[in-house]
Amino acid sequence: MNLNVFVNNFLGFIQSVRDIPWLRWFLRFLALSQAIEPVGWPTSFPLKDGDSFDFIVVGAGSGGATVAARLSEIPQWKVLLLEAGGDPPAASVIPSLFATLAHTESDWDYTAQLDEGIGQSHPGGKIFMTRGKMLGGSSSNNYEIYARGVPEDYNEWSEVASGWDWNTVLYYFKKLERMTDPVVLSNPYNAKLHSTSGPVAISRPKANAVFEKINERVLNAYEEIGIKRVLENNGPEIVGASRPHFTFADGRRSSTAEAYLRPAQDRPNFFVTKFARVTNVLIDPLTNRAHGVRVMINSSEKIDVFANMEVILSAGSIDTPKILMLSGIGPSEILEPLHINVITDLPVGKNLQDHSYTPLVFTGQRGIQTAIQNVFVASELDAYPTPTQTSFLKVNSSHYNDRREKPNIQTFNIHVGATAAPIILYGCRTIINYDEDYCFSMSKANIYNEIDVTSVLLLHPLSRGQVKLRSNNPFDAPIIELGYYRNKKDVDLTVEAVKFMLRLTETSYYQKVGSKVVKLKVKGCEGLEYGTDAYWRCYVVNSVSSILHPVGTCAMGPDGVVDERLRVYNIKGLRIVDASIMPLIPSGNTNIPTIMIGEKAADMIKEDYNFTWR
Ligand SMILES: Cc1cc2nc3c(=O)[nH]c(=O)nc-3n(C[C@H](O)[C@H](O)[C@H](O)COP(=O)(O)OP(=O)(O)OC[C@H]3O[C@@H](n4cnc5c(N)ncnc54)[C@H](O)[C@@H]3O)c2cc1C
C-alpha cells in the first residue's frame, strides 16, 4: 500500500470522528501534506509518431477520463488518453482552494463574449471562461457542487435520443457514486437513489459551529419565503433548499483524475500522455473514417497517432467543437471562409447553453465580531471555504408557458464575514471580470457588514450561444458567444426570480440585522429609479455572468451532431463523450451529468463490440 492510499484510508477514519477539534486540525494537516506530495498520478507515456492503439480518447476531463478508464477494463483493448495539460496541482487537490486555479497554467483561460447591450458591467462585454487544463479537466478546478439534475431532464433527452431516460441514467449516476454522508444513507427514501461503491467520493462534512449556525439562519430564512428545506438536492424532492453535497471526501477532491485515472494507471493496456494537444482528427477522405489524430507534444513536436477502432473526442464543450471544425466537420458558413475543406456540414458549435446568473448582495450584521467567520475559513481547508447553501425552485413560469415538472431557478449563496472586502474585490475583478465600479460597490458593503452573495441561476435558458473558429490556426482560442438573453423570456423569468429572492429582507433574521439589498453600480442602469421594474430588468441584463456550465455544442439527436450512441453523423469511428453532447442543459451543475455520460458511453461502446459489462 503506498503512502497516499494509507493516508486516504486514515483520513476516512478521521472524517468520521471529525467533531473532535484536535483531530480535525490533524486531518487538515494531512490533507495538505498529501496534496503537496506529487505522487499518484499516471506517468506520461512517451508517444511516438505512427504509434497505434485501439481507442484514442482526446481530453482527460469529466467525460474523457471516465470513458478511457472504463474502456481500459477490457484487457484486449489498447487505450490511449491524450491530455493537453499536466497533473492537477496541490490547489486542485485541496478542496477549499479552487478559487486560486483561475488564470494559472491549469486553466485554458478563455474569454467569452456577450452580445452588445448585455452584461455591460463586464469590461468589453467579456467574461472569463475558465476551463480545466489538466488530468481531470474541469472536474479538477470546478467548485465541487454535487448535482445530478432531475428525472424530467433525462426523460426530455430521451425524446430526441432513446436510451437516455431517467431510469437508464440513474443506473450510471449510482455506478459513479460513492456517497459517504450518513444522513442520506440512513433515510430509506433517499438511500435508494444512492450508492456507496462507485469511484467518485461525495460528502457533506459537518462544518465548524460558526458556519453551521450561519447555514441554519439562511435556510430558515429560505423557509420563511416559501422554499422548503430538503434533506438533499439529489433526493426524491426536486425542489427545495439545503447545504449541498460536494465532490470531495476525506480532505481530497474527487476529480475524475483521482476517481478514475489513479486506480487504472497500472493497467498494461492503458496509456496516458500529458501535454499532448490534439489539433485535428485524421479522416480518410475515401471512406469518411476517423483513423487517428494529429497531436502537438510538449508544445514542440507534431506527430500523428492512429486508432484501429475509434477516436473519442472528450475535449469539452468549447474544444470538442473546435477540433471537429478544424477537421472539416461543422457548419459550412464557418469553415468555407476559413478555407477548411467541409467533409460534413453539421451544426457543430451551435446550441450552446449555459447557466447564467444574477448576483444579489444582502447585508447582514454589522460589527467587527462578524469578521470572526473569516478566521474559520482556514479551519475548513479540507472542506468548503464558506457557509454555502443552494436551492432549486420553480418560480411562476407564466412567461414560459412551461408545465414541466422541473425547477427553473437555482440559487447559490455564499456568506462572507465582514472585512473580507479585498478578497471580494479580487474575486469580482480577477475571477469574474466585473468592472471596477461594480466590484467596489460590492466590496464596500462588506467593510463593516457580513454579506450574503446570492446568485440567481437560470436553469433552462431558451437563448442559445455558439462556439466558432477564430481562424484555421489550431492554437488560436475559439470565439465563444454566450448568447445570453437572445430570447427575452429569459430576462422575464430571471427578473421574476430576483424579485422573489429580494423577499429575504422581509424574513425574521434579515429584519433583525437590518438587512439591505446592496445597490451595486451596474453599468447601463445609472438613470433608473432603484427598485422599479425597469431597474431590475436593467440590473438582470447588465450584471449577468456565467456559472461556467457550457453544454450542448455537439448535441445528441436527429438535428444535432451525434446520434444516441454518441457517434458523429456521416463519419465512421468517431464519437463524442463530454458535456457538448447534452441536447438540453440539466437542472443543476454539470460535472456529474458529464461523468454519467462517460460511464454510459463506455458501456455502449463495450456493447457495440459485444462485450457486455453490466
Ligand atoms: C471553474 C468551474 C467551476 C465549476 N463548478 C462546478 C460545480 O461546482 N459543480 C459541477 O457539477 N460543475 C461545475 N462546473 C462544470 C463542470 O466541471 C463541467 O461541466 C465538466 O467538468 C465538463 O466536463 P467535460 O468532460 O465536458 O470537459 P472538461 O472536464 O473540461 O474536460 C476537457 C479536457 O480536454 C482537454 N483538452 C481540451 N482540448 C484539448 C486538446 N486539443 N487536446 C488534448 N486535450 C484537450 C482539457 O484540458 C480537459 O482536460 C464548473 C466548471 C468550471 C470551469
Automatic annotation (TrEMBL):
Record keyword Ribosomal protein present: no
GO molecular function, one term: flavin adenine dinucleotide binding
Keywords on record: FAD, Flavoprotein
Pfam families, A to Z: GMC_oxred_C, GMC_oxred_N
Start and end residues of each Glucose-methanol-choline oxidoreductase N-terminal domain: 316-330
Record has Flavoprotein as a keyword: yes
Cofactor: FAD
Binding site for FAD: 278
SUPFAM superfamilies the UniProt entry points to: FAD-linked reductases, C-terminal domain, FAD/NAD(P)-binding domain
PANTHER family for the chain: CHOLINE DEHYDROGENASE, MITOCHONDRIAL, GLUCOSE-METHANOL-CHOLINE GMC OXIDOREDUCTASE
Family named by the database record: Belongs to the GMC oxidoreductase family.
UniProt-recorded name of the protein: Ecdysone oxidase-like
